[in-house]
Amino acid sequence: MPDNKILNIQKLGFQWQTEDPFLMTVHHKDAYPQGNDELGPIASLEGRNLGEDFTIKDGFRMYHGKAVPGFPAHPHKGFETVTIVLEGFVDHFDSTGASGRYGNGDVQWLTTGKGCLHSEMFPLVHKDQDNPLELFQIWLNLAAKNKTANPDYKMLWAEDIPVIELTDTAGKKTTVRLITGKLEGETSLEPAAASWAHDPNHHVGIYLIHLEPEAGVTLPSVSKTLNRNLYFYQGKTIHVEGTAIQASHSVKLAGDQEIEITNGSKDAYILVLEGEPIGEPVAQYGPFVMTTEQEIRDAFDEYRRTQFGGWPWGRYDRVNEREAGRFARHGDGRVEER
């Protein structure tokens, strides 16, 4: 193993291990059936631990949802969620009065900042066909000075996200979806204003790589202090600097070295997370991420007193109408439609 380039190899579980400035990554993949009139699954929900259903049964999970799968209203404070939806849809509502529906390649970049409530439900919009869902949710920390930012979100619509296509001399293709950062001369859409990723000197990169069989790609040298992790989540075998890596493994890589990745005989799908560390203390309890234990206690006190502005939507598991389409309605009244 080239120990100056590959620093660690680890098997992936449900929640993937990350490094500063990232806090957590989860990969959701559920084979939801046809939807019913409530936009929930037409299948029976008997035998599930509804409200805490994290075990795959009949190909899917309900998570905290009881009628519609997903995550009813819950609080966050002090960090950002970057939700990359590869397939399916997410309905968003939050305590600022914002709402939306996004999916099929869209990315929502949510700054929770000084605190907000939001819900993430997975509406099964199709009654005449299955409703598969696949998404990543990445938690990105905020620097201490930005933990009091106003909660807000930014949409990176699928049609606008840069896609890099590389073809080698043998005609093998590599495709990279650049969620944030710079790669192969391309620059991503601008992330949220309060984000650690907003400053290009922080070298935050989030990108998805698809390698055709026998295709390859080289990650550039960035900096000695960069934290860089590769998550090989679907495929068979890739080679990183000549070392065979099986699917469902992560690889920690040196940030100041070029890294050559070549694929084997089956299509490979990879998520890369990289960035300069924030380098500040992290105090985390559930959905609150601050820098000291006292700040965590203060956050809970504030939530109990204010509910971070309260919940204006009635149901905690609210969804949009079936035919709503993709849109974002922000707390200031601004509307984006796709």
Automatic annotation (TrEMBL):
It comes from the Bacteria. SUPFAM superfamilies: RmlC-like cupins. Residues 51-140 form the Pirin N-terminal domain. InterPro entries: Pirin (IPR012093), Pirin_C_dom (IPR008778), Pirin_N_dom (IPR003829), RmlC-like_jellyroll (IPR014710), RmlC_Cupin_sf (IPR011051). Residues 209-309 form the Pirin C-terminal domain. Belongs to the pirin family. This is Pirin family protein.
